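Researcher: Let's continue the batch. This sequence belongs to UPF0173 metal-dependent hydrolase WKV53_22040, and it's 243 residues. Same format as the previous ones, please.
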Amino acid sequence: MTRLLIPAGLFVFWGTMKLTYYGHACVGIELACGTRLLFDPFITPNGLAKAVDVDVIPADYVLLTHGHEDHVADAERILKRTGATLISNFEIVSWYGAKGIEKAHPMNLGGGFNFPFGRVKLVNAIHSSVLPDGSYGGNPGGFVIETPHGCFYVSGDTALHADMKLLGEMHSLDFAVMCIGDNFTMGPADAALAAEWVGAKHVVGVHYDTFPPIMIDRKIAAGEFAKRGVELLLPAIGETMGM
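Model: Same format as before. Here are the structure tokens for UPF0173 metal-dependent hydrolase WKV53_22040:
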């Protein structure tokens, strides 16, 4: 696996995919085919991401794992600017439909769909979900993305759960994007075990340091993953890495 960190905004291709970290749990992944996936955009309310210009972030698809504000805050703005397709559970897609977002694809847990870029499967997450106005957000989830050039897992906010073992049996993951901040989600020790179960040797950690309850010690976190033979990657906000 080849990785390279470059400053935000520098357009470079290498390897098969590139991942940009936009802070908190938001990542953009550009596939080898050029399709750009954006997960859980929470940028403008995040003081740590103040250097990121939300109005230049590219997206062909916006994927939302659940309805909490710290995962959807900039979704409507980005969807309307880019004309991207929304992928999420049925309840979230319906909520955005009422806001005029008609280019969308609803899913539910355990289901998969073949998009032009590859297959998306909505998988279990153990968490809660409510939309910013208090509307029911459906069940939280994660995504497994399978493309001709690679496969990866985005956990969403979740506790450690035994279904992750099934992901390791059913998929050959090149990497995973996992919550590691503890308190509201898995902490580093549980996330490292999750990585072992899903079979990911390289994990991009997200959902940490944004708020006081989820501050982490990066050295200790990396050590938890190293114990299980997994590399923990913590790019700076705005940085891009080849995957």
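Researcher: Any comment?
Model: The chain has six helices and 15 strands.
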